[in-house]
């Protein structure tokens, strides 16, 4: 399936869209505070060459509170236009886009007449198109004279594709809503897990800043009053250069399992950074 085409940014937007080239790697970077810029998963994209195509997510873009009753009923079946992209959108995350491919311009004209919501679904040449995606709601748009669109989208509900209704001029599918369910044994302390994950993120940020020659300032309040479920989505959105891992996290239907997986990933990252920091201390020139 051909991937949609997206172009560079417009200065008229606070969040600037960036070029996405499906053949290149790209990265998601948390922007909750400029001092917290870091590369959280160096072991996942071992020595991959960083390019300039960066999509930014922000902790502040996530809702302050999450209530389990706020999502549509999981039994509802609706039709949703789909936008395959080589990235994973999480609930609450901000996604800037610029669209110029004809079929997606048609889709935008339709959305502007309806509810401004479409499905963002991960797709690449190796694995094809995923079955689980996230609704992107257009919260700001600009239409240019040549009929291109600049968009700012925000992740909303997750969905699972039940059936493709049509494929031209763009994909439309019947989808059902996906929600996290209570843990199987009911014994997991999700609040405690979320706190552990936050602490691991703080340590990763601190060591990453040190390795990059930045001030080792203490990262505080990364959760920003988020409940465990939306916090787990925020954490997943920071996992750079690993869209398949992000997709796996998006598909999980258990907040505790998602947090445990993220905790393990961050712990491995911390071990990597600790070893790299020790090497740098012994051999300063190697950094």
UniProtKB/TrEMBL annotation:
Pfam families the record matches: LON_substr_bdg
Domain Lon N-terminal: 77-270
One record GO biological process: proteolysis
GO MF: peptidase activity
Residue ranges of coiled coil: 242-276
UniProt KW keywords: Coiled coil, Hydrolase, Protease
Matches recorded under InterPro entries: Lon_prtase_N, Lon_prtase_N_sf, PUA-like_sf
Descriptive protein name: Lon protease 2
Originating organism: Nicotiana tabacum (Common tobacco)
Organismal lineage: Eukaryota, Viridiplantae, Streptophyta, Embryophyta, Tracheophyta
Gene that encodes it: LOC107816598
